[in-house]
Amino acid sequence: MSIELITIVMFGSLIILLLAGLPVAFATGSLAVIFIVLLWSPDALGTLAIRIWGQMYQYLLFAIPLFIFLASMMQQAGIVEEMYETIREWTGPLRGGLAIATVLASTLLAAIVGIIGAAVVTMGLIALPSMLEHKYDKKLAMGSVMAGGTLGILIPPSILFLLYALVAGQSAGKLFAGGIFPGIALSIIYSVYILVRCYINPELGPGLSKEERALITWKVKFTHLLRISFPVALVILVLGSIFLGIASITEAAGVGACGA
């Protein structure tokens, strides 16, 4: 059997198992075992166990569950909703302000979560209903959620960067440093695009009404801004300790998990 045919069969089987509702871990694990037995022999399963056991000793891998725990704690505490509402209060009066708030909140969420799926699902549940309620164009609303969600690939602590660093033998810290500025730049570009587009065509994303703006006083804005200052400071502390060389990625992840 050629390598091309093996690849097609493996990916086809993976898609079928995922569509059947099987968890990713069980789908990939079961396919690995099946194809090892079919292509080599059952004796090769011993090598598989040794390889898995060896990978468990990778020190950098400990950072992944710690960063996921940090993100989970902040999500369960309602920090993500507070971040979106706070940013919405500042950008809401602008045309396209809710979509801009979605992108900016997704940027902060990317610095907490580190993966795409969680950011897209979370912002889809929080921001999308608000935009549709305010008569935003569906394409613009969905686009801001999807575009903002993809920033989790670039902005640290990107889980994909950690996995790539392990596989390719590269420095995870350098990957983090190389990804943060493009991620922030994309966030700014998305926001400017939304602003310009909505000022050219106001029907795409109207600003908040006068009644809604009247309820958002300066006192409310600054009070809510202070409310999210601690989680934002925690993220800055974790990433800053990595970039300044004060702590390794795993150590910084541990500090972040304890702080959460």
From TrEMBL:
GO CC annotations, alphabetized: plasma membrane
Compartments in which it is found: Cell inner membrane
Pfam families in the record: DctM
Gene Ontology MF: a single term: transmembrane transporter activity
Transmembrane segments: 6-39, 59-78, 98-128, 140-167, 179-200, 225-247
Bilayer topology term: Multi-pass membrane protein
Keyword vocabulary terms for this entry: Cell inner membrane, Cell membrane, Membrane, Transmembrane, Transmembrane helix
Main localisation: membrane
Keyword Cell membrane part of the UniProt annotation: yes
InterPro entries: DctM (IPR010656), TRAP_DctM (IPR004681)
Signal sequence, renumbered to the chain: none
Residues in TRAP C4-dicarboxylate transport system permease DctM subunit domain copies: 11-259
Alphabetized PANTHER family for the sequence: SIALIC ACID TRAP TRANSPORTER PERMEASE PROTEIN SIAT-RELATED, SLL1103 PROTEIN
Protein's recorded name: TRAP C4-dicarboxylate transport system permease DctM subunit domain-containing protein
